[in-house]
Amino acid sequence: xxxxxxxxxxxxxxxxxxxxxxxxxxxxxxxxxxxxxxxxxxxxxxxxxxxxxxxxxxxxxxxxxxxxxxxxxxxxxxxxxxxxxxxxxxxxxxxxxxxxxxxxxxxxxxxxxxxxxxxxxxxxxxxxxxxxxxxxxxxxxxxxxxxxxxxxxxxxxxxxxxxxxxxxxxxxxxxxxxxxxxxxxxxxxxxxxxxxxxxxxxxxxxxxxxxxxxxxxxxxxxxxxxxxxxxxxxxxxxxxxxxxxxxxxxxxxxxxxxxxxxxxxxxxxxxxxxxxxxxxxxxxxxxxxxxxxxxxxxxxxxxxxxxxxxxxxxxxxxxxxxxxxxxxxxxxxxxxxxxxxxxxxxxxxxxxxxxxxxxxxxxxxxxxxxxxxxxxxxxxxxxxxxxxxxxxxxxxxxxxxxxxxxxxxxxxxxxxxxxxxxxxxxxxxxxxxxxxxxxxxxxxxx
Amino acid sequence: xxxxxxxxxxxxxxxxxxxxxxxxxxxxxxxxxxxxxxxxxxxxxxxxxxxxxxxxxxxxxxxxxxxxxxxxxxxxxxxxxxxxxxxxxxxxxxxxxxxxxxxxxxxxxxxxxxxxxxxxxxxxxxxxxxxxxxxxxxxxxxxxxxxxxxxxxxxxxxxxxxxxxxxxxxxxxxxxxxxxxxxxxxxxxxxxxxxxxxxxxxxxxxxxxxxxxxxxxxxxxxxxxxxxxxxxxxxxxxxxxxxxxxxxxxxxxxxxxxxxxxxxxxxxxxxxxxxxxxxxxxxxxxxxxxxxxxxxxxxxxxxxxxxxxxxxxxxxxxxxxxxxxxxxxxxxxxxxxxxxxxxxxxxxxxxxxxxxxxxxxxxxxxxxxxxxxxxxxxxxxxxxxxxxxxxxxxxxxxxxxxxxxxxxxxxxxxxxxxxxxxxxxxxxxxxxxxxxxxxxxxxxxxxxxxxxxxxxxxxxxxxxxxxxxxxxxxxxxxxxxxxxxxxxxxxxxxxxxxxxxxxxxxxxxxxxxxxxxxxxxxxxxxxxxxxxxxxxxxxxxxxxxxxxxxxxxxxxxxxxxxxxxxxxxxxxxxxxxx
Lengths: 446, 578
Fold this sequence. Notes:
The complex is a heterodimer. Chain A is an alpha/beta fold. Chain A has helices at 45-52, 76-89, 103-116, 129-137, 145-151, 162-165, 169-174, 200-203, 216-227, 242-253, 264-267, 273-286, 303-314, 336-341, 355-358, 361-365, 381-385, 426-445, and strands spanning 11-16, 28-33, 36-41, 63-65, 71-73, 93-97, 119-122, 139-143, 154-158, 190-194, 207-209, 236-237, 240-241, 257-262, 291-296, 320-321, 328-329, 347-351, 372-376, 388-391, 401-404, 410-413. Chain A has 18 helices and 22 strands. The longest helix of chain A has 20 residues, at 426-445. Chain B is α/β, with parallel strands linked by helices. Helices cover 33% and strands 23% of the residues of chain B. Strand 8 of chain A pairs parallel with strand 16 of chain B, so a sheet runs across the interface.
């Protein structure tokens, strides 16, 4: 399909940051006509469509579900008052989401969580939280993406498919671009995809290593044994012929600079954080021979920023429970899914996230029984569950703010167009909520 | 607001006030010579009064801290404290890796008002400044990492000092940095290939540039620009037995460079955490102290200053841009290793470290640090630091002071508490020096302020910033030399009676009574704007090719540094050739 270039525009804004995936591509050009975005240059298809078509199914006014179960439009004051009271009166509130909002809003969220004794959690809890656990177990040898672009001659993708999920990962950051020490770009690099599925990333790789589902741990452990000179008495490990593994470890050992990217295919399959544990140990061992580092492929454009902001403010990366007035973090104890499965929460607020899409069915069921608040830009499954809907704005398009790329490089995202009149930024909403809760607290003290 | 601090015993080494009982007048944010009768009296009769503490090397904000917190929840748990009922501070969390608010609370309660963040990569400077916005109550200059920057390496390789001068001037503006930090020059770049450099004259494999060339070039640039602080150097070979020779060579390698006549400081190089750079021997088995040679050099020469990086016996976290060293430590200890390579600029590494009084190597390091305190005769040449959190967290400063002030306490430790390497492999046992309050005020206030080139603080003269700390110590009735008093002393220094910053009372009777936003201190060189524009235009294509973010999104936006103090430096050096 060939699309005609967009020529009908009256303003260009350059170097915007994309608000889709963890790549946070910051070279995006927005084409505007009459202060509306009509075109996007440099972005991938997903990013571009997210930026352009974003008025579709937009939440435009605050809503409260009435007695008949219908969402009814209301004023900000009423909606915020009701949210503040519900949150203030709850015993075990959860404030979940944050992947697609700014660090500034997250910091306001921490303040609200602190005064209400809430649990502050983000998408890490269902995605790379297990990777963070592994970092806490074993270590954290990472790099920024430019190191890969400039130096890497061997790049390994494990359990991730960036060609579909982070479309510009290979073209802008790792594989294809010219690097300082890799003048010929793709030709100077060996790309290996390790995945049970033949993905689009596997298609553009030099080698695809297919292994059996859920045998990640076995596979990586075998690689590590081979690296450390152990003899394996099997011809095939996790469905991979031994010779192929021997060949792989030779390539890895002889790399000048190796980079390993891993995704949820590793961190959310059987073994979870243990898979990542052994992968980290493999990278640590490889550094005896060569230079290797690794990076989890973070999903939303600011999930990494949430972990960073939360560690700055509370010390812990996700699943932080303020119920005792000081932060506590214990995976399985203070993490959202586990809390929902134990039916503990009596209040749930989703901020720039849709648990209706992301959570297991059994966990979501509980949301029907408790007050559920949605703070987001668009209609989605969670809207159908929500008792109160607070329409917010899009960071990097309608609101400015800080976000951290998957490799933790901070970017300041611009405000380019005006927000819909009756929508407010997450930061504004949380600031108002904080003020209202403070008032309730003072009233109670009296 | 006007205050009079009445009848305190004042130690202000810069103004030669050594334990005089006197009043100090504060009007608004300055110290003045007289005030109106409406002023509020703070009666501190007989109590210890010093300028607000100044820390010139600490790691408190930026990516290293974030990684540390993320991967060491066990350290966060160690420092958990619920919100105080007596004061307005919130909860505390973290021991060697405190959260941002916790850093502010703890420093303020110790009477510190200025703390330097010692290593910020420009690419992630926004992160550091964002974190500073969450730290309350301090003035924070940040030092910008240049020692492995590719542009710098290129200019040094091609001997383009003019370009380098303009580059540094521009980059300090972009990173909102205060001064030039050099960490393991060329070594961290070599780590991009899993290598390191060995010593000052070992060229980096790709660039062919040596540490000596980098340090010399950046020192020349620093003096040419006339930055208030000198180059701040973490020399090559940190933590390797035998490294004292490299350190000596580094001390000497810039001796001939002329200091800028307009600056107030005495030094042209500040060598940081020298304790980690002062070992003799060939391995950890035959290691011994190399402090004597370095102390001798420091005593005989005036072109350099240093801070100690004292070890305290704690489980802490080491973090540095000297990433290859951290990997060596990982191979040595097997503890969990974190590493982060930052494109075009630097690398960094972290690893937990357990310094035990029973472990020979820890004890040797501890004793080497104390040797510097004892051996360097002029306290204006040294500064008390732990390279926090590398040698130990900053909340151990008072403990170190209690060791320095009591020979009895130190001797007791040597005799009963620490491994015998302290006496067998170092010269610590040969000293019998005891620090006076005046000397303590020098190494924690006056000297770091002077070395940093921040003339408005570190003293209590008329016109100085009203940054003052008062401790609940009756100077004339409290014998710091007694071992039995050392714990009391530590406690009193941890919990100030008053901490006053910019004329505002932040701590009263060990309770935090006010929280203010921290101030970002940065250096702006004026006079090179045209040259900067030319350079910018020239390097922008290269920049956009080798970085993964656009040049336009690289600098720290102004809203990240509110409030700030811009130190303006007028460029008066030679004409720059285009």
